[in-house]
Structure formats: C-alpha cells, structure tokens
Specification:
Length: 484
C-alpha cells in the first residue's frame, strides 16, 4: 500500500505538472453523474465548469447547480416532445448531447443527428469545418438549436438546425509537454497517475501485475489496430473505460448487429462503425449474433489481419481496434473452470482462423471485482485531456520504430509472423503508456512492455493449440531488450 508520504508526493507532482488538466475524481464520484448516463469526461467537464464559475462553492452547491444545468440542457427521453414544442415555439435552445454528422453525397447535404430528441437536421457548415470530430463518430458538446419553419404551405418540411457548438474536450492538449513531464515521475508514480486517471484507486489495486492488466484496457485507445479479448467474471468493470472514458470508442452490447452497421451501408452509402472509432467493442461477447454471420465474420476476419475490408464495391481501411469482452466462470482457485476459454462464446470465436487474429487475451479473472474502494478519490488527469493524449500518442510512429529496433524475440513461437507482429504491436502500445518520453531503462522496458505483451500473445497460442492441436504446436516465446 502507498504510504501517506508517497500519496502526498504524487499529489504534489500532479499539482506541479498537470494542475490545469487535473480534476478531483472524488468529487466526480460523490456527485454520481454517471448514474444519469453521463460519461465520465462529460461529468468532469461539468464539474470543472461549475468550479470555475464559483471557486468557494461547497460540494452540495456544485451538485445543485450542475443538476440544474442538466435539467435545463440534457433532456431525458421523456422530455423530447417538450423540447420539440419549445423549438417549434421559436426558442433557441442549448442542448448537451452527443451530436453526429452524416454526409449525403447524393443530395449534397450534411445532416446532424441529435439523439436526445430523436431528430435529424441541418448544421451550420462552419461548425463542421471547425470540429471535424463530428464526422468521426460524433462529439459530446453544448449545441444551440433553432427550428426553421416551412416558408409556405408547399415548401419543404420544417427542420431543426444546429447553429453553434461548443465541444466538451480539452482546449489545450500539449503532447510534447506531456512526454517531457514523464521524467518528473518514477515509473511507479507514473503508473499510479495512469490508474487514477482511469478512475481506479492504486490503493485498492496494489498488485503490480493487476495494475498492468488494468492499464492493458487502454491499449486499443493508444495503439492502432490492437485486437483484444478480455474474459472475466461479471463485475470487474470490463466495459467501463470504453463506455465512459473516451469518445473514440464505441460499445456494442450483445445482441444482433449487421454488416451495414459495422462496415458499410450499401443503400445509404454510409460508412460503418469500424471506420469511425479507434476501438469497436463487443460487450457481452457470449450473446453476439450477426444478421448475416458468414459475411460479417469473413469481413471482420480479413480486417483484423490487414486493416482493410471490402463490402460490395466499397473498399475501405481503418486503424480501429476490435475488442471482445466476455463473461466466464471462475472456480474457487480463482482460475477459469474450463481450460478452453472460448467454449461458451459464439462459434466464430471458437475457430482457430479467427482466434489467431486476436493479438492478446487479457486475463480479466486476475482483476478483482469492483468494490466501494475501487474508484479513486484523488486528483488525476481529466478524462477528456487523457483520452486526447492517448489519441495523439496513437498517431506517433516513433514508438513502433523503437520497438522494432530494440525487441528481440526467442523461442520456436517467435518465428511465427503473426506472433511477432502481435507482440511488437502490444509492446509499442505499452511503451506509449508507460514511457511516452521513449527513455526507459532496459529492465523496466522488459518488465512493463515486453513481458506483458508476450504473456498476452502466449495465451492466444495456448488456446490455438487446444482448439486445433493438429495444426498448432505447444510453443514457447521469450524476448529481451536489444541494445543498439
């Protein structure tokens, strides 16, 4: 457990280096905004907005003011007709929502989707030019809406227009400063900062391996085209980060989905989710089904290998990672009841040809279930700032070059191209997380980047051997830091 002095030291480091982009995670938790369906990064934005307005306010006053703002600007589904009535009566309304813009090339139009009132409408073109994230899966923000009435009885229908927009995201994301500041923290302190920023309490998650597995959940958000599967009992918080932490991930919660939604809609010429996000997450993987399973699995399998896909006459590429989250039964010893981990997952997830395209299996059974002590109550990086940092790190290619230069793999499994590619991709993601300044000690690089990456991939190799022992042998993989 961290001592009081260690906590004070970390708090001081955060204040000295990241004060402008830090937030009191304890206050976020006490206000329970997430229970109202508000993502963490939006909740933190609301809190910081209120604190800037009145520096001396108590928690109760802040909570009351925020709740009033939510009631005024974040309508529930039951209030949508009330909001539409106000728009129809000529009011200009400011709505807090996750706005999304679609382009219709046939009509040469831009169309904004407004989920809270189940409407589609027009958008001021300057808003799209300024905030291109609206085209990339949508953005949470405060949007000013106005209703345009039909000019005559024979003219086109009335329509809602998004006239102005203010995004809920960090205004100043300085990646260079973030990278340089890493040197002010020890690796242990940096890991605690990352955990806090995700919303976890380092005190509760004291085991170092557990901490690494928790941070592994960030890999698809910081490394391009990482395909992961996490298997764990219910209650370990598998989907929380993807649902609440970043606007660049999209969660599909079980049920049936279609190739049009995932890849490309041939009727509307609209790109699918796979081209709009950094991570596409299939939650409750054991209940996944597809409207056209052969087509979806075939395209998904090709995409997970190459980063490209074809549907109809549409050819597309993406750097989106594919993540599966599944529940499994755990025995009294804390290990999975069945050695073959995919037994209760859909058939396509039990095929070796699909499983080998998964870069790593995250052992979620090694992560404790969420308890009252699990969330942090300390200061940490704001979720919107941190998620933007991860996305910018994702675009930096020097980490991949560093790994290619310094990683040497050993063992018969290292000769397999899929194994080596997977390990190096995962190791590059860990490097972005733990050593953004690209200045690790060799032993720390092996401990925090290389060994976890090998462990994730080796677990895939073990499953492949059990699924198809005639095709896949038992293999060993090891590696070390190669000095240049």
């Amino acid at each position: 457990m961290e001592s009081v002095d260690e906590k004070k030291s970390l708090d001081k480091l955060i204040k000295n280096n990241f004060e402008e982009v830090a937030v009191d995670k304890g206050l976020v938790r006490r206000l329970n905004l997430e229970e109202q369906g508000i993502p963490t990064f939006v909740a933190e934005w609301l809190i910081e907005r209120e604190k800037r307005k009145s520096h001396s306010s108590t928690d109760e006053e802040i909570s009351e003011n925020i709740q009033g703002f939510i009631n005024d600007h974040l309508p529930s589904k039951s209030q949508k007709q009330y909001v539409k009535n106000r728009l129809q009566n000529g009011e200009r309304l400011k709505i807090l929502d996750q706005f999304r813009v679609k382009i219709d090339l046939k009509k040469n139009e831009k169309e904004v989707v407004i989920p809270s009132i189940d409407e589609k409408g027009k958008i001021n073109p300057t808003v799209v030019d300024k905030y291109e994230g609206l085209l990339e899966g949508g953005m949470w923000g405060a949007g000013e809406l106005v209703y345009e009435r039909p000019t005559t009885s024979t003219s086109s229908d009335g329509v809602v227009r998004l006239d102005q927009f203010m995004p809920l995201q960090a205004a100043d994301v300085r990646l260079d400063y973030y990278r340089e500041t890493r040197s002010q923290f020890s690796t242990k302190e940096w890991i605690c900062l990352l955990l806090r920023s995700m919303g976890y309490s380092p005190d509760f998650y004291q085991n170092e391996q557990t901490r690494i597995w928790l941070l592994t959940r960030l890999l698809p958000l910081v490394q391009k085209r990482v395909n992961l599967i996490e298997l764990a009992p219910k209650g370990t918080g598998k989907s929380f980060i993807f649902s609440n932490f970043s606007r660049y991930s999209r969660v599909i919660s079980g049920g049936k989905t279609s190739p049009a939604v995932l890849f490309y809609n041939k009727n509307t010429s609209q790109p699918g989710l796979l081209t709009q996000y950094d991570a596409l997450v299939f939650d409750e993987a054991q209940t996944i089904s597809f409207s056209n399973p052969d087509e979806v699995v075939g395209i998904l399998k090709d995409y997970m290998e190459s980063g490209k896909f074809t549907r109809g006459n549409k050819h597309a590429s993406s750097d989106c990672g594919v993540v599966f989250l599944g529940n499994i039964e755990i025995g009294e010893d804390g290990l999975p009841v069945e050695q073959l981990l995919f037994n209760h997952l859909p058939e396509f997830l039990r095929k070796a040809a699909f499983v080998t395209r998964i870069h790593g299996i995250l052992p979620g059974w090694q992560i404790p279930k969420i308890q009252n002590q699990s969330p942090t109550t300390a200061n940490a990086l704001k979720a919107d700032f941190f998620s933007e940092i991860l996305r910018r790190l994702r675009a930096e290619g020097d980490y991949d070059s560093y790994v290619r230069t310094h990683v040497s793999l050993d063992g018969e499994g290292a000769d397999n191209l899929r194994n080596s590619r997977a390990i190096k991709r995962l190791a590059a993601g860990y490097t972005r997380l733990f050593f953004p300044d690209l200045n690790p000690e060799p032993d720390e690089f092996e401990k925090y980047c290389l060994k976890p990456a090998i462990s994730l991939r080796r677990r895939v190799c073990d499953q492949l051997q059990m699924i198809d022992p005639g095709e896949y042998d038992v293999v060993s993989i090891d590696g070390h830091f190669e000095k240049t």
